[in-house]
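Researcher: I'm comparing several assemblies side by side, and this is the next one on my list. It has 1156 residues spread over two chains. Same procedure as the others: predict the full complex and return the structure.
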Amino acid sequence: MQNRFSKYIPALTWAREYDRTILSNDLLAALIVTIMLIPQSLAYALLAGLPPEAGLYASIAPIILYAIFGTSRALAVGPVAVVSLMTAAALGNIVEQGTAGYAAAALLLAGLSGLILLGMGLFRLGFIANFLSHPVIAGFITASGIIIAASQLKHILGINAEGHNLLDLVMSLIKHLPETNWVTLLIGALATGFLFWVRKGLKPTLRRAGVSLALADAATKAGPVLVVVLTTLAVWVFGLDNQGVKIVGEVPQSLPPLTLPSFSPELFRQLLLPAFLISIIGFVESISVAQTLAAKKRQRIDPDQELIGLGAANVAASLTGGFPVTGGFSRSVVNFDAGAETPAAGAFTAVGLAIAAVALTPLIFFLPKATLAATIIVAVLSLVDFSILKRSWAYSKADFAAVFITILLTLTLGVEAGVSAGVGLSILLHLYKSSRPHIAEVGLVRGTEHFRNVLRHSVKTHPNVVTLRVDESLYFANARFLEDSIQNRVAGDPDIRHVILQCSAINEIDFSALESLEAINKRLDEMDVKLHLSEVKGPVMDRLEKSHFLDELTGQVFLTQYEAARVAEEGCGTARSG
Amino acid sequence: MQNRFSKYIPALTWAREYDRTILSNDLLAALIVTIMLIPQSLAYALLAGLPPEAGLYASIAPIILYAIFGTSRALAVGPVAVVSLMTAAALGNIVEQGTAGYAAAALLLAGLSGLILLGMGLFRLGFIANFLSHPVIAGFITASGIIIAASQLKHILGINAEGHNLLDLVMSLIKHLPETNWVTLLIGALATGFLFWVRKGLKPTLRRAGVSLALADAATKAGPVLVVVLTTLAVWVFGLDNQGVKIVGEVPQSLPPLTLPSFSPELFRQLLLPAFLISIIGFVESISVAQTLAAKKRQRIDPDQELIGLGAANVAASLTGGFPVTGGFSRSVVNFDAGAETPAAGAFTAVGLAIAAVALTPLIFFLPKATLAATIIVAVLSLVDFSILKRSWAYSKADFAAVFITILLTLTLGVEAGVSAGVGLSILLHLYKSSRPHIAEVGLVRGTEHFRNVLRHSVKTHPNVVTLRVDESLYFANARFLEDSIQNRVAGDPDIRHVILQCSAINEIDFSALESLEAINKRLDEMDVKLHLSEVKGPVMDRLEKSHFLDELTGQVFLTQYEAARVAEEGCGTARSG
């Protein structure tokens, strides 16, 4: 019983080893992460089109639920850039931003996403995430980063602009450009410039000035908080909100509220696909962060349990006024680097954010939205990495095509179209490649028992016997290609009396391929040609024995290709050289 | 130039060898096929929801176009049962049957289907048809046969009934059952019973009575024509049309008219997916018939050229008052058995049908629709074969699932949902299987240089070295599984210092898998474990050399697993037994 609980509630495992040292490490990490998360949470709520407090709420209960059910010891769960963008894109086409319906729809989206993740975890369907190939993810994240940055330009310029893809956004920005608020632009540009400098230039400068590495790191991380404080003060002192600078305004002083998502069937239907995509993308992002951090300490990550942890976190977000969440890269790395040893650090972070939600919200009344936009822009531009185009081009044109289409369609049509097209194209290209497997005609290398490709090696063949080696498992996508190849090879050469299929590279034969082999056997028989198999792997042979194929086979099954060729050639006369 | 033309117009090849013997063989085959096709063409038009003459028109120009562009010498192109059902299902939801719009939509459907096939042929995209696994096709055809038979019951009963899936059809039949026309039912039942008897009992009876095989065969084939003649006479003589028996009525005496499909963009959009499905299903059906017949004479079939032949045939159908066509099984077999040697037999059949369309149409005025329905029912019930369920269950549960879902959804939701779900599920199951490849931990078989699974064989292993053999190509669907497997294996055993990946069964490594290998290499490095590769295939190695992976690899690449294990173990001490 103990073991079964521990399997589904990993917290029971680490809680038993918990001691004072771990506690103090976890507390310190929690403090650092809390400070970092306050501006980040507000900013991602803005990106998702929600009021700022939603960002804080989405970082409290979900962190605790993940701490109980998740398997990563350092992963920090909460709103992240790409998922916030996908939330805005999903809701933007359905309900109007700023309405009560919008926030309710965000809760439903988080709830659906949580249930999908829980379902995938319980039924061990995590493999679905494998459909997202690395090039598609890389392309998608790069394109999303660009869209996110573009979507925040309106806050920097102090104008209105709408759109969930780059084209719409840019058109809208150009249209509203004359309405630019110069004070807002000044704040936004200064904040963006300062944050870029903090990220790139501050640390080397401090180090050159003899500041210790730890202190330089801390200063770098405190940059966003400093910008928040300075710009808020500037707005308050100079009354810039009266100059048209948009501010965060009143934020309720409250713990996360208990909320129930809307249950309209129409909304449910419209949000199902976006929720599925958000779940998958969020899971893929999160697990790769978790794996990277776990490897540094030789810890295990259980992907199915991760689905349950993330699912519980999203359900929690939906019941406490949040929106879809997942494990974030930057917050997890900060958590890990700050010395977090167990998920309890996450729970302490939640307490810190809860205190912030209750006590600090009045202080951000004058926080300009342009500052939050600057935080987002600087954070997401690090996601943009076009080198994937160059690297995939060098390695494989098919993978390049998948990246390219994903980036192109995400930028022009939006996140859902982009990622769907990328996934579809990856699968299509994979099936295409394996539908035309490498089929080598092989012959005996003189003085050995090895058979190699007749085109690459000087080998011995026989005019009446042809041996083909298929370098791929046989399944529906290449079954017909095999039929065509063998039939065309034999139809073109009236001397052939034996066809040997060397099966050494065949890991599986599915039912379609079995029927194709039966058809090949029958058609060869009508041409008066015998079909033999050689070097069939054990599991494949077990399968074949369950069918009638071996009874109908006109030739034999040989353990080795050498034996097969010897027996087939025996009845046919002498060998010729090739 | 000659050769290039011959490639795209196979008729140029066989036309050069044409002589008087071939001519007389082709003419005889054409006569037999023409007689068989007259009732069949009328019946399939009825099934597609079109006026009877559309069936004749769809058999004339398409045959000629296929004769010019197709590569099969015996394939007979025209309306077939499954494609006619799909046509009715595609149009039934969009336009009302019996209207001019319905016939115009059928032309557009044939035109679109033709263009899709031509496009696939010219761009060599025939591999798309590989997405249809054999179990899905078998399930789809069985379910379609049942739906077709059920859809014809209304003609046998003389009532109205509608629906494109079994549930709707049966509900509708039950509702209208009280309106049964008893005279129609008598004709329908007698015709069906007689045709069944002709198919099953006539030939043995004649043979027992000492009739020659050829004559018995001919009598069997003449059965449908006899039923047409007898029931038409019965209606005419007894004036049964006044008793409520529905008849074919007036059919224009005309050669196929020149027609232009409708070009409404809305209709275009609605018919694109059905046209695509019809193209794929039609192509798969046709090519398997063509392959089977070609094998009997050691002839070649070029799948891409077949797409062009079928595409041209469908474009011709759309321009001459027809509807979607493909190569039919029964008509092609009859054509082949009757001795057709070249596609000219098809052209002669077209002439025969053109004569029928001009001269014989007044004779079928009194032909009862119940007779045509009986022809269809008897023909399609031979398509119904539930043994695929049993055979696939015995061989592979995944393939069984694909058949079962295809049959279930085709019967309950209709043809398009059924075939789409079947294709989707096949791909999903394939990716699922290859996403969790067999990964064996291997050790050295004593006294040899062979490495085998530690679980199945008594082998020598080393406490600090683990060797894993993946029995599958590495690509995006299993890249993460590989990461998880290796990380969990190593995280659980602190002694491990070397991981060797034996790559003998890996035919490909895509970009996702490459990035996973890079991540594995990096994570193992952080655990202070070296990663080695052994027995990497040539093409895979070529690929890897284009990337930075080999520079970053902490270990080495070995030609043989034996060498890899020896080098890795050298630095680690003595071996232990497993």
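Model: For your comparison table: The beta strands of chain A are 77-78, 326-327, 439-445, 451-453, 459-461, 465-470, 498-502, 530-534, 557-558, 576-577.
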